[in-house]
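Here's what a typical entry looks like (Ubiquinone biosynthesis O-methyltransferase):
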Amino acid sequence: MTNADPHELQKFSDLAHRWWDPNAEFKPLHELNPVRLNWIDAHAHLAGKRVLDIGCGGGILSESMAGLGAQVKGIDLSSQALGVADLHSLESGIGVEYEEIAAEALAAREPGTYDVVTCMEMLEHVPDPAAIVKACATLVKPGGWVFFSTLNRNVKSYLFAVIGAEYVAQMLPKGTHDYARFIRPSELATFVRAAELLGVEIKGITYRPLSKHFALSDDTSVNYLFACRRPV
């Protein structure tokens, strides 16, 4: 069985045509992307690296990593999102290879292939996030980097990421997130250890409403990033 929720896939597929509109439903991703891109590049030095972006959607992160000189492959299970990603890649002239395939299936086909694996804003949308973490560990080369981002599960994250972002500020469509699927850093660390990855750094992401910008912080109570390496 595919490790995907049909309802979640349909939700993002229905919005696929809006993926590259910086003022539409994916505006927060556009605003967040430079922060996460710089953080990934600071660790992994993307230029010349072979990179896999799992759950790439319309390709916002995939294209930006390719723009820094990485050889990027993006995978997703939404054919609509991948169609948008392919079209935008042609329009921008930034080459990215896209494929509709599950992370676990690609891991079986291409183990130890990638210098860098990213899985951003995806774990909280799948039934079995631990299986995705395991697939990431299989796909990356020994010594390579794996990067995750997801949402913490606590009262504050519910108030900020669900009530605040979806209902008050209307930064995201209502129903974007299911609070029950949010993942505490301790839980993700357990998945990481079980997959035999080494945790390197965890950073929080905060939103500054006055400047309307995202920034890295030590506050992991809502959004957070997790950097890992596969042992040599």
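The helical segments are 6-14, 27-44, 60-67, 79-92, 103-109, 129-139, 155-168, 185-194.

More examples are in the samples folder.
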